[in-house]
Amino acid sequence: MSTLKAIRGTRDLLPPETALWNRIEATARSVFARYNFGEIRTPVFEDTALFARGVGEETDIVSKEMYTWEDRARAQSEKTQTLTLRPENTAGVVRAYIEHQLGESGQLQKLYYIGPQFRRERPQKGRYRQFSQIGAEVIGPVSAGSESPLRDAEVLEMLATLLDELGISGWTLQLNSVGSSADRERYNQALREALVPLAPQMCVDCQRRAVTNPLRVLDCKVPADQPIIETLPRIADSLDADSVAHFAAVTAALDAAGVPYTRNHRLVRGLDYYTRTTFEFTHGGLGAQNALLGGGRYDGLSEMIGGPRAPGIGFAMGEDRLVLTLLALEDAAAQVKVDAYIAPLGENMNAAALNLARELRHVGLHIELGDGSFRLKKSFEAADKTARCIVILGEDEVKSGILTVKTFATGIQTKVARAELAAFLSE
Ligand code: AMP
Questions:
Q1: Residues 6+ apart with CB under 8 A from 31
Q2: Which atom of ligand 1 is nearest to 270's Cα?
């Protein structure tokens, strides 16, 4: 029988690395709470139409990367539906915003999520078919200030804080504005015209994009195309006065808060719903897949999927890439040792050892429990690998109430009264 393996592009996360994932999630939750974000959990699969309309039919995600299937009706009352594993979470959040009429409160909704996303991409380091995103959205009626450039700046400042608190130094914030949908339409037209004579000299993908979705040409990574792309018109020149003023207000607030950024005129991002501010945080340690996170404003998304006017701004960070970055920066997943290993001397001591372990665990100590069938040498070897100390528990110890504790770092062996053991191990 052939052995079964995790599907290509998916992977198992194992300890000790999972401790790092938990630390990242705990830090993110703590930062989000300080900025008054609440958690939203949306389903992992949705109606395919949500992504077709929300993300855009022409995007790589929708045109070739979605896991989509026909979900057969199980009863007469049901109909067969086309469903998709979510490739991103913003469309789902906005769907939920509309479905639960969250805009009715008149307040801004500040929502964050942590969870798996699915895209049928070509797997490589930092790019998987199941990956985890940590993201947040600020969305609401215009009267609640959802269009304000202050919201953009606050989200970017929060991200700078989060990366700093995670211990990820050396990031770069790349910033751009893609303008209003009218600006984009104008820019698309300008690009399309500029590409007519140039596209035949470019890669096959760009030749297709030049016709179907000219903005995507700016994402091209083919080296030979780069000098040509540099000569193309810039979106900055197609922005109307309002978009220019909005962007200037975002950068002024970032300057005031001391958040560094660089303008990247080619940053138009892979999803169709973006308007005005777009951004990416990159990190040199990641290699080819250098984007830690991306996001932007999506003032028309709610209407695109049948909702009320509800401008918003959000981002999604690649949690897998945060882990990779931290692993490269430090020995972040180094095994953390438990406080003590309890070694029963003989199987008749097992029950007493369980009871001692229970007492110590109840006061919050991290305890590994050995087994009375082990020879003492084996217990010491196992303890040295997993714990800071070993506590020996034999008949004499139980009778006298005095335990022998050896601390591995110092090699010192001490007699400790059972009543004092928890305090001793906590030191
Ligand atoms: P996007 O939703 O495409 O804007 O991506 C936002 C972030 O999610 C990126 O900057 C990456 O960090 C991460 N990401 C996107 N696709 C993948 C993938 N296939 N594998 C791992 N991380 C990804």
A1: 158, 161, 162, 165
A2: 3
Per-residue pLDDT of 38-49, as tens digits, reads: 999 999 999 999
Q: How many residues does the chain have?
A: 427
Encoded tokens for 313: 């701004």
Contact 247, 277 (CB under 8 A): yes
Sequence spans of domains, the chain: 17-180+241-329, 183-239, 337-426
- Residue 122, classed as helix, strand or coil, is coil
Q: How far is the CA of 214 from the centre of ligand 1 (A)?
A: 22
Q: Is the CB of 270 under 6 A from ligand 1?
A: yes
Task: Check if 292 has its Cβ closer than 6 Å to any atom of ligand 1.
Answer: yes
Q: In what order do the strands lie in the sheet with 275-283?
A: 38-39, 109-118, 130-139, 312-318, 291-297, 275-283, 171-177, 262-263
* CA atoms within a 13 Å half-sphere pointing along the CA-CB vector of 29: 10
- How much distance in Å is there from the Cα of 233 to the middle of ligand 1? 27
Per-residue pLDDT tens over the stretch 72-98: 988 989 899 999 999 999 999 999 999
CATH match of 337-426 with 2.40.160.60: no
Q: 17-180+241-329: CATH homologous superfamily?
A: Bira Bifunctional Protein; Domain 2 (3.30.930.10)
